[in-house]
Amino acid sequence: MAIRAAYKEKGIKVYEARWEDVLPGLRGGTVDLVIADPPYKISKRRSRFVQCGYERDHDFGEWDHEPFDLSGLFVQIKRLLKPGGLWWCFYDIWRLDIVRQAARDAGLHPWVPFFWHKTNPSPAFGFRHPLNAAEGGVFGAWDGNDKAYRFAPGGYIHNVLVGAACSEKKLNGRARKPVWLVRKMIETSSGENDKVLDPCFGTGPVLKAARDLGRRVVGVERDPGKVQVAIRRLEEGNEDEDEQDTQDEQGALEI
Ligand SMILES: C[S@@+](CC[C@H](N)C(=O)[O-])C[C@H]1O[C@@H](n2cnc3c(N)ncnc32)[C@H](O)[C@@H]1O
To answer: How many CB atoms lie within 10 A of CB 171?
Structure first.
């Protein structure tokens, strides 16, 4: 049975479900750009401690402990992307190889690692060292033919993005990506009216950035609480968090 969208507006469909239950039912070859931010699987249980005056927790929640079929997700990404389509997949910078291999196995072209250098790093959590300024992922394509891709006119994609993370206060324990960051990715690797897919959208920064840039959007997320936050972000703009993102963006460098 087809799963009903939890939220719809012109060009936007948002599903509260597991990607495994939604993506196979979508028509193949219809997506221009995928931005995926799957669980990194780095949480440790009972890891609260105080460091430099901050209380830290290296347990992001149940969603980061449960099994996640990254290989299966890439099989669907390959099926859904148009030839010439592009993808970004965030992941733990120590283990980008896992993403690279899963993409390769699915017949996709993992092009280059990217890094998000945070200009407001918090003291390191899990490993208790002072370096905690980067996240990253892999940027790739449907195949290795760079003639076909829809990069921003005159632009190219730099593999280091620089700017602030959302403040701890605004995160409320959620691993949220700032809107400014995903907006840059979408701007540089898709065009007006292109279809953008986020298969585990969390609190929805990709949905919001893509919609505001005039892209069509399909999003899937299985956590009902996060889906509600994302829908509110689309409907009302989540003023508080968006304001924080705008401030963060002022400290961001152009890529
Ligand atoms: C790293 S978080 C994404 C955060 C998001 N980019 C944001 O900025 O809020 C990973 C998300 O994957 C979701 N998730 C895990 N397994 C899933 C599945 N099988 N289908 C859909 N979403 C899933 C989790 O609930 C979690 O919200």
So the answer is: 14
Ligand 1 midpoint to CA 41 (Å): 11
Task: For residue 52, count CB atoms less than 10 angstroms from its CB and return exposed for 0-12, middle for 13-18, buried for 19 or more.
Answer: exposed
Taking the model in full, what pTM does it have? Answer: 0.87
Nearest-angstrom CA–CA distance, 193 and 11: 9
* pLDDT classification of 162: cutoffs 50, 70, 90: confident
What's the CA gap between 135 and 118, in Å, rounded?
8
Query: Domain spans of the chain?
Result: 7-250
Rounded Cα gap, residues 210 and 192, in angstroms = 10
The Cα–Cα gap between 253 and 255 comes to 6
74 pLDDT more than 80: yes
Question: CA-to-CA distance for 139 and 133, rounded, in angstroms?
Answer: 19
CB-based pocket (< 6 A), ligand 1: 18-20, 37-39, 63, 68, 174-177, 200, 202-203, 205, 220-223, 226
**What average pLDDT does this structure show over 152-156?**
62
- Residue 153 falls in which region: left (phi positive, over 0), alpha (psi -120 to 50) or beta: beta
- Residue 115 CA to chain centroid, in angstroms? 13
- 7-250 classified as CATH 3.40.50.720: no
